[in-house]
Predict the 3D structure of the following.
Amino acid sequence: MANRKIIIAGNWKMNKTPFEARCLAYEIAEKTEGAACDVVLCVPFVDLFQVKEAIAGSKIGLGAQNVHWAESGAFTGEISADMLVACDTQYVVIGHSERRQYFGETDATVNARTKAALAAGLKVILCVGETREERELNETNDVIERQVRLALADITAEQMANVIIAYEPVWAIGTGLTATAEQAQEVCAYIRSLIAELYNAEVADGTTIQYGGSMNAKNAAELLAMPDIDGGLIGGASLKPTDFLVIVAAGSAKASR
Ligand code: PGA
């Protein structure tokens, strides 16, 4: 067994009011009590407090879905890393393809956010992934290499202990199209080789690399059976407790191996 954590993270995106979030988080916390893998819920900012209370005493990690790179200041509508830490948030998703696609996220802003989050003591779930067009043009590895290298610029080997990478092919997100286990494994292994090149084999071996993109109750076990897939970042299925619990069970099975 490789020397890294298996992490199943839900990305709730822009779903759930605080009350709804509290109910969902409570149900998930109750039913994942015996999980052998790590479980994280990445929720809308306004839900952090309610979810924190609902998961209190459980092993679930609390996560946000974005963070600004500045410490404070005139950035209307933004949230800083220190604010997240003050809300007992432990994880933050950075560079999700929806932010890259709809909100002007670039490799440079992903890097700036990552640095600020790590400096504040947060764990980062860093998202990378190619579009359908890029895959069809055989550019997948080039795109992944660029995104990984630029996102991790100036991040030290020590800081990598707090970085999780999520490989999320854009064409598979919310589309019901999942990468085959072999396609996902191939890119996750490639990401690990890039980390070995940027840092060393020990850092690469210790880095959790998740797959995300229509991971669900039916395909999770097959994807997680792959040697370089150490967890999942789950959107749609993370809002359905029964499905999410099946995915957590698949993660637990892998963690116990
Ligand atoms: P999906 O989303 O599981 O709904 O495809 C995954 C993600 O965007 O993180």
Remarks:
- The longest helix spans residues 181-198.
- The chain is about 40% helix and 15% strand.
